[in-house]
Amino acid sequence: MKRIRIILEYEGTSYVGWQIQPNGVSIQQMLTDAIFGVTGERVNVIGSGRTDSGVHARAQVAHFDTQARMPADKFAVALNTHLPPDIRVLYSAEAPPDFHACFSAKQKQYRYTVQLGPHARVQTRNTALHLHTVPSFDLLQAAAAACVGTHDFRAFMATGSKPMEDTRRTIFSSEWSQVGGGSKPPPYWRYDVAGSGFLYNMVRILVGTMLEIGSGKLPPEAMTRALTGGARDLAGPTAPAHGLTLWRVCYPDFDTEDYLA
Amino acid sequence: MKRIRIILEYEGTSYVGWQIQPNGVSIQQMLTDAIFGVTGERVNVIGSGRTDSGVHARAQVAHFDTQARMPADKFAVALNTHLPPDIRVLYSAEAPPDFHACFSAKQKQYRYTVQLGPHARVQTRNTALHLHTVPSFDLLQAAAAACVGTHDFRAFMATGSKPMEDTRRTIFSSEWSQVGGGSKPPPYWRYDVAGSGFLYNMVRILVGTMLEIGSGKLPPEAMTRALTGGARDLAGPTAPAHGLTLWRVCYPDFDTEDYLA
Fold this sequence. Notes:
By secondary structure, chain A is α+β, with helices and mostly antiparallel strands. Chain A has five helices and eleven strands. Chain A is 19% helix and 30% strand. In chain A, strands 1, 2, 3, 4, 5, 6, 7, 8, 9, 10 and 11 form an eleven-stranded mixed beta sheet that branches.
């Protein structure tokens, strides 16, 4: 028996999300089926965390145990022959037996992409939120900066989530940047956030709140008020799933960034 | 009556190509229907040229005549409300009455994208040809350079094309470039070719020939031999459609590059 860890990328558009669900096809299901195709074993594939329906991954990490004799580094190519083109395993290797894709994770990074301009562009129609009107970049940036540090993020958790004992999380970095084109404003703005962990829908509610602040629908102090007040209705709406991508996962002995070009 | 010219982008994956055909949905059909939705008129939409099934456009140009009173520059947004997300009109304006999207075109540019590496990446699965093995960049580049100038390209025309009187075309530039990543080799290689016009399947056969030369299946002199010999079987195979994108169209009074970010 050995433990395999993999890095995979996917476009979440066609899936109900990471987790196996009765009402549609999940990434976890596709992976489980692909592993069965390769090894003949029905295994439990554990991800670093769930991604919602429509959310993408540039670097999701998962692990599973197998008795197959195939060398660990051959799993990536082998699994890809059983996966559709919108899911790719980019890396596979043997992991220490106590490695756990979810519980061992020390840091995660997400990126949320916004596309500005009069028309929703074809190339990023599934991976960026199109905005007709340009928010204030400075207001977005100030609201993002207010999230850095250790806070109780309960206002940024989906209503209906099961109650959690500890809704405190630490955000290491939280920043907007502008990219692309010679046009003004640059057509793509990205929000990158790295933290110790994230509550359910937390990144999307952070983005929804920042976009309301950036467009003047909420005052600049709304972010701090929601962080200190702790009530869901102090924060903004949940931004659409399709702009969000799981960007990077770090473990004590393993950082996805070291394995991606 | 006024003549409208538009710039549109599309991902060709889901379409039978530009031209209206009985056996599937075409870009031209979608545009014709969208114009009907906006103006109530059934018009003939003329493109700068046909793109094959699976071929994409970053900047296709088309024109049509309308009696609608809507200002010409409002057509882009109006048409987009009637188009699916994989087709976008990026620009619309009134054109001189003698402008013709096909016959007035003076120069066209195509880009063919190749993705290298062990796994076909998710993001470019529909827009780049994945190659497992790395061709010789120098051999590709030398073969590309051999195409520049005025040649009889009949060896690079699909067999079964209707006979043409003049198969001479002028290639202004023909060049490979490497982009992306800090990895070696860079994961994306692009072939950019600009010419006075192109025969049916010409760019794809040029690429197919260069890739055979780059991988040693054809000798370096195969390109010149096909250009001088003129027989289809002197050239290589037709490269897959999905790596090809119509990149730019130039007219005496109009260059798509001036309108794209």
